[in-house]
Amino acid sequence: MIVLQLFLYCALFTLMVKIGVGNNALNGLYFYPKPVQERVFELGLTDRETVAGKRKRFMTMFFLVMLAALLLIIGLWNGIHTFRSAYLQALLFLEVMNWYDGIVIDRLWVGHSKFWEIPGTEDIPFVQTWSQVLKKRIILTLIWIIGAVIVAGLDVFLFR
Question: How many domains does the chain have?
Fold first, then answer.
């Protein structure tokens, strides 16, 4: 059952990214490295204020949806209401999501899809290298250790 839940959680992650960018990679420009962003601004394809607004809207909705889904999986679907059990499950889901993002989203989807190429920026690398992915994911692994405490506390508060 947990494997199915992890699959569904990662599918939700992918769906949220797809909804966030729609049919135009420029809608997700905030995901790109600064040199790509600067080139896009120079080309006049968008401006900083628009990108900042899109980032704020997406990240707020993304965070709320992913948190709500995680709480519903742990607290309602799995019926977990003790802090320790909720913490361990939250940690598992957050870490799987973390590495899924780095490997499947960043390296596979972004790295092998023409969709993410922005005209006029083809000469600027925008796909993270494996060493960048590893560094970022290790840092986020440590951050999610704390994030899982928050999720577990919310689970116990809401569903106990």
Answer: 1
